[in-house]
Amino acid sequence: MLQLKPRLRKGGYTLIEVMVGVAILGILLAVGIPNMTDWIAANKARAASGFYLDGLSMARRQAVVHNARSRFILTPGTNGQFDWQVDLCFPVPGTPCADDEGNWSTTAAASAGDPEGTAGFRSVFRSAASLPPSSVLVPSVAPAGASAVYFTELGWVDTTIAGRLARLRLDPSGALAGDVRAAAVAVTLAGMAAQCNPAAAVPDSRACPP
Question: Where, by residue number, does the polypeptide cross the bilayer (predicted)?
Answer without folding.
Answer: 12-33
